[in-house]
């Protein structure tokens, strides 16, 4: 008889906070050298390991009160303690992986967006109007942030103008960057730090519909799904987010190398 050993819950270490500057996800905050988490002690300074933002202690927030500061800055993930929410997103990932034609990848993505409780972060090379609409609807409830490149001016206006239509939507564009290395080639979307979709498909309906096709597996003789890769391993989701999304977000940030931890204004 097989069952679920509750000891497995000890391995569930979801993201709890994110960096003020680059939004890098972290499950823990360590004030000890070489401690766990993204924000940790480095040579006596509290620093984000992704964007190197230094958190400067004050009389309001001591070195050991970084978590409280991030919570007060609304840089904390509220749904982290809700296991039922994690199960719902896990079920979406499982349904997409099955390759059921009645549950194509685009349906999984749209359902995940509809169930998101804290945020959706994405990087993409090009988008479609339908996807922009889906993100705007999602941004009525939660924060939706993204970095895009190779997008036409009319569609870019839909994302960065008319902000009163979707106050929760914030997008940074890389179209005009002449440096090819800074343009976006990795496409991914992360939901609440628990579920991620990654792969070659851009955030366009045509690409996501292609992702549902089956093609022959030359090695195994069967078939392999071209669907977006669904990531449900929380540690991998955090790593994917912090390596792809966060560096780009930090590059366009107005925040400098240091931030003084004081009461939010």
Distance between the termini: 57 Å
Largest sheet descriptor: 6 strands, mixed
Question: What is the total number of structural domains?
Answer: 2
Number of helices: 7
Structural class: alpha/beta
Strand content: 15-25%
Shape: globular
Would you report the number of β strands?
Answer: 15
Question: What is the CATH top level name of the largest domain?
Answer: Alpha Beta
Oligomer: single chain
Q: Spatial order of the strands in the main sheet?
A: 9-8-7-10-11-14
Uncertain residue segments: 214-227
Instruction: Give the overall average pLDDT.
Output: 85
User: What is the gyration radius calculated from CA atoms?
Assistant: 19 Å
CATH topology of the largest domain: Endonuclease, Chain A
Order of helices and strands: EEEEEEHHHEHEHEEEHEEEHE
Determine the fraction of residues in helical runs and give it as a percent range.
Answer: 25-40%
CATH architecture of the largest domain: 2-Layer Sandwich
Task: Describe the protein.
The chain is an alpha/beta fold and 265 residues long. The protein has 2 domains: 13-76 and 255-260, no CATH class; 80-232, Endonuclease, Chain A. It has 7 helices and 15 strands. Residues 214-227 have low confidence and may be disordered.
What is shown here, in short?
The chain is built from seven helices and 15 strands.
Provide keyphrases for this structure.
globular, 265 residues, 5-stranded mixed sheet
Write the layout of secondary structure elements.
Layout (H helix, E strand, L loop, with lengths): L16 E2 L6 E2 L2 E5 L5 E4 L2 E4 L5 E3 L9 H7 L10 H16 L6 H11 L3 E7 L3 H10 L4 E7 L3 H8 L8 E5 L13 E5 L3 E5 L5 H6 L3 E3 L6 E3 L3 E3 L2 H18 L6 E3 L5
Parallel strand pairs: 3-4, 6-15, 7-8, 8-9
Antiparallel strand pairs: 1-2, 4-5, 5-6, 7-10, 10-11, 11-14, 12-13
């Amino acid at each position: 008889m097989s069952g679920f050993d509750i000891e497995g819950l000890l391995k569930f270490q979801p993201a709890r906070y994110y960096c003020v500057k680059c939004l890098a996800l972290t499950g823990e905050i360590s004030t000890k050298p070489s401690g766990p988490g993204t924000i940790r002690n480095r040579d006596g300074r509290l620093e984000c390991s992704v964007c190197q933002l230094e958190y400067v202690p004050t009389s309001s927030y001591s070195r050991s009160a970084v978590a409280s500061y991030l919570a007060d800055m609304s840089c904390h993930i509220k749904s982290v303690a809700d296991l039922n929410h994690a199960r719902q997103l896990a079920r979406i990932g499982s349904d997409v992986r099955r390759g059921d034609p009645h549950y194509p990848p685009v349906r999984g993505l749209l359902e995940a967006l509809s169930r998101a409780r804290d945020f959706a972060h994405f990087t993409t090379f090009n988008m479609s109007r339908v996807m922009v609409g889906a993100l705007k609807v999602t941004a009525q409830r939660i924060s939706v942030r993204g970095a895009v490149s190779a997008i036409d001016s009319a569609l870019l206006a839909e994302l960065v103008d008319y902000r009163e239509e979707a106050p929760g939507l914030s997008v940074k564009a890389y179209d005009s960057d002449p440096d090819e290395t800074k343009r976006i080639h990795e496409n991914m979307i992360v939901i609440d730090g628990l579920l991620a979709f990654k792969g070659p498909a851009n955030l366009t309906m045509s690409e996501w519909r292609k992702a549902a096709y089956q093609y022959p597996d030359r090695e195994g003789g069967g078939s392999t799904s071209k669907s977006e890769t669904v990531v449900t391993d929380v540690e991998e989701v955090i790593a994917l987010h912090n390596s792809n999304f966060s560096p780009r977000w930090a590059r366009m940030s107005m925040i400098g190398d240091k931030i003084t931890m004081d009461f939010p204004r």
